[in-house]
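Let us practice reading a record.
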Amino acid sequence: MTLPVAFAIIVGMGMLAQWSISYFTKQIPELESEPYRIWFHIAGEIITAVLLITGGIALLAKWPSAQALYLLAMGMLIYTAIVSPGYFAQKGQWAWVLIFAVIIILAILSAITVASSTATY
């Protein structure tokens, strides 16, 4: 379970860091042009990040609901990793699109690993 746990915690922390840095360095122009839309988007990503971190910790701690929590977090991550790259594709930032593709693949593999685990959580 090392890869799924590490993946969830690292991605969750990365999401929180990315949004914090972007906010404090004033790199979110949509706060001026589309404030409602971007705040809903940011809220969804923060909730996803918190659930990723919590799901990873839950697997480590073997909480009774760890598997369900982890799979919920992975589903949320897969959704955001499908929706978010459009922003970067529109700007021609293809490296980011590739990063999101890798995240989707790792999220699917992690979810399959956790879902097929016979360990009880």
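A brief commentary: The radius of gyration is 15 Å.
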